[in-house]
Amino acid sequence: MAEISRSALGYAGDAADAQSSWPITRGSSGGLRLFHYHHILVQALAVCLSFCIGQAKAAEAESKPEGPPNIERGAVIAAEGIQQASACAECHAFNGSSDGSGAFPRITGLPADYFKSQLRDFASGIRNSAIMSPIAKSLSPEEINDVTAYYASVNAPFLPLKSASPAVIKSGRAARDGWRQREGHSGLRPMPRA
Description:
Layout: E1 2-5, H1 6-9, H2 15-18, E2 21-26, E3 32-34, H3 38-63, H4 71-80, H5 89-92, H6 112-124, H7 132-138, H8 141-153, H9 166-183
Antiparallel strand pairs: 1-2, 2-3
Helix pairs in contact: 4-8, 6-7, 6-8
């Protein structure tokens, strides 16, 4: 659809109309038809935008807890859980440093807003986890606010990683060396040995 300004057509409307343009389309008889519809689009967009903003504010109000977080209550939730969900400490440890095995992520020191968004994603199904999704769904926005504030405030040490057994390390090195020989990478700098 091409557009042409009204001044090019010799249109002498009021000043507000003179600033807009007229789209030109081909009619069913092959002639040109002019449409002035920008005001309808603007009204429709305004209605849609106000609806979307209203929906977003309602969703935000539902998910936003009232008042500042209660870190002490968050510590109780982390240690004991709630009636519908087990304690965070069962998997992540009370201080959030996890168990060092890598099976459960370290959650201590995460920014509270980031942690809240992750729990909301588990609850809504954006992130899927057989363990975390039901737990996150059972927490109220206030409980999420409290427990994330607690873990954000904890400063726990990093646990040392467990080393693999010497047999596993030896097997890995043998596989690496065999690959290098097969692929002709013998001239590569050797990897540092632990």
